[in-house]
Each structure stands twice: as structure tokens, then as C-alpha cells.
Design brief:
With 292 residues, this protein is of the alpha+beta class. It contains eight helices and 16 strands. The site of zinc ion (ZN) has 6 residues, from strand 14.
């Protein structure tokens, strides 16, 4: 990791950093649980770094809300990540090896390890970039700042099409969202989204909301399997506030980035996980359901 930002200019376009294709390996449930953390190239711990996911956004859009993998099984492969839980009952946050569930009433709970998840993605977070990050008035301005820092550090991150993003910061405002739990027969996600709850947390003058924004940036080719672009969740330091992030106003923070090349995908029995779907229709559905 280099801090000599003024001396070396690795001005590498973000698309170039994406140039290495995301490598997807599919697993059955048992195979996934038993699979060790990938070691494609022991000489290069960047390549060895992998993200692990159960099911896909596409399957979630079609209403596959029945959980398959338990949170304990998920935590074998990562201490950091996001997703949802059994029956789409809220937003899931995995931070420092602990799971938090934020239900549609905005309450933060610690779910049991036996709780199942129909969609989640995790990695063992080992940041290769740690940088202070200044004030950001909006989520788009924050993610473009993260993009800028990631391309500036493309050499530290390696050929990593998947970016795990953690921002510990102080915020004056956070806009959050969660979804209400569903029961069978499950409706498609687009119908649930009509009943999601959204709320704003605004800090009192002179105070701030302190906490962690965390999630992933997936490359365009991952659309369908994943949310292409950024998908971020939030959990406050006191663990009282959390959810899927749709907007922020940040005072200051510290950014940590970790890259991954490989995605290990668990395919629940009876769930069809198609190849990545980059159609505009899918992109629109994903933006509506999971966008910022
Ligand atoms: Zn989300």
C-alpha cells in the first residue's frame, strides 16, 4: 500500500481495473459449506480473495425468499457483507463477524445463527486501501469519490472486479430503507418494494450519526447475479440504526477497500440462477428494488 499519492500517478481508468473478468464458481449447498476459501494463486493473495454469495438478485426479484443457507454457514466464508433474511424480513448487515437484521419498523436485531438467508454476499474483509475521506453531500458524490480513490489505488487492489467497501464515518443525515417480511406464496420483489418503508435519520445540530457504511461494488457483467455498481447498507456505532442506504450526507470518514476476483455462488435447491442478465429491463427492476 502506498501513501505517496503525490509521487506516483497510477491513473488507471475504473474500467481498466474492471478488466479482469469476475470469475463465478457455482456450488450446491453442501459443496458451498464445505468449500475452503479460494486459493487460486497462493503467490497472490489478491487473487485468493473471494466473495461468497447465496442465490442471486435475479432469483430474489422472482420471489425466491425462502432462506437456504444459515447465517452460521454464511459466516464460515466471511465476516463482512450484506443481504436479507428468511422471508425477506428486513435488511442484513454483517460487520466484524456479527450479523444484524433491520426490520421494516427500523428496529435492529441480532438474528440467531440458525436464521436462514435467501440472499447474502460476504467476504473475509482484509483491506488493501485505507484512506481518509472528506465530506460528501450525497450518495452519488460519495460513490464517485470512492471510485476515484479505488482507481488511484488500482495497483494496491489488483485486478479486482469486485470491490468490498467500508466507510466508518460521521453523518449528518442518512436515508434508509427496509422491506416487510413475506409469507408464502411469495410475491415477486417488485410488489414487496411497493410496501417497503423508508425513513430519514437527521442528526441534531452539533451532533452526528456515527457508524459504518458497508457493501460492494460489482462490475456491470455481474448484473442479475448481483446488483451492478454499489450496494450499501448502514449500521450505527451504537447498533440502534441501520438499513439499506438510499442517501447520505457525510461529514467525514475513513474508507477501506478490499478487492476480489472470484465469486463463489451457492445455488439453493429448486432455485434457478441464470447467467448474468444485463438487459435494460432487469437493470430497471434491480434499480427499483435494490438501487440507492
Ligand atoms: Zn440492500
Amino acid at each position: 500500500m502506498s501513501d505517496h499519492r503525490g509521487h506516483t500517478h497510477h491513473i488507471i481508468d475504473a474500467h481498466l481495473a474492471h478488466a479482469a473478468r469476475m470469475h463465478v464458481t457455482r456450488h450446491t449447498h453442501d459443496d458451498f459449506v464445505a468449500s475452503p476459501v479460494s486459493t487460486t494463486d497462493p503467490a497472490n493473495d489478491l487473487l485468493a480473495h473471494a466473495a461468497f454469495q447465496t442465490s442471486s438478485i435475479d432469483a430474489l426479484l422472482r420471489g425466491s425468499f425462502a432462506g437456504d443457507l444459515t447465517l452460521d454457514e454464511l459466516l464460515i466464508h466471511g465476516d463482512f457483507g450484506l443481504g436479507t433474511v428468511q422471508g425477506l424480513d428486513g435488511e442484513l448487515i454483517i460487520l466484524d463477524g456479527k450479523c444484524f437484521q433491520v426490520t421494516s419498523d427500523g428496529v435492529v436485531r441480532m438474528p440467531a445463527g440458525s436464521m436462514r438467508t435467501p440472499f447474502a454476499v460476504v467476504c473475509m474483509f482484509a483491506p488493501h486501501v485505507v484512506e481518509p475521506i472528506g465530506a460528501s453531500g450525497s450518495l452519488p458524490s460519495l460513490v464517485s469519490e470512492i471510485d476515484r480513490i479505488a482507481s488511484e489505488h488500482a495497483q494496491d487492489l489488483g485486478p479486482a472486479p469486485i470491490l468490498a467497501v467500508r466507510v466508518d464515518g460521521s453523518f449528518s443525515e442518512i436515508d434508509l430503507r427496509s422491506v416487510p417480511g413475506q409469507s408464502e406464496p411469495y410475491p415477486p420483489l417488485s410488489e414487496v418494494v411497493d410496501h417497503q418503508s423508508e425513513w430519514q435519520v437527521i442528526a441534531e445540530p452539533g451532533t452526528s450519526i456515527d457508524g459504518t457504511l458497508l457493501g460492494f461494488r460489482f462490475p456491470p457483467e455481474a448484473q442479475g447475479i448481483e446488483v451492478a455498481g454499489y450496494h450499501l447498507h448502514f449500521i450505527s456505532e451504537d447498533r440502534s440504526i441501520g438499513g439499506h442506504v438510499t442517501g447520505i450526507s457525510m461529514l467525514s470518514g475513513r474508507l477501506r477497500l478490499d478487492g476480489a476476483t472470484e465469486l463463489h455462488l451457492e445455488i439453493p435447491e429448486g432455485v434457478e440462477v441464470a447467467e448474468a442478465d444485463t438487459s435494460e429491463e432487469t437493470a430497471k427492476a434491480i434499480r427499483a428494488a435494490e438501487g440507492g
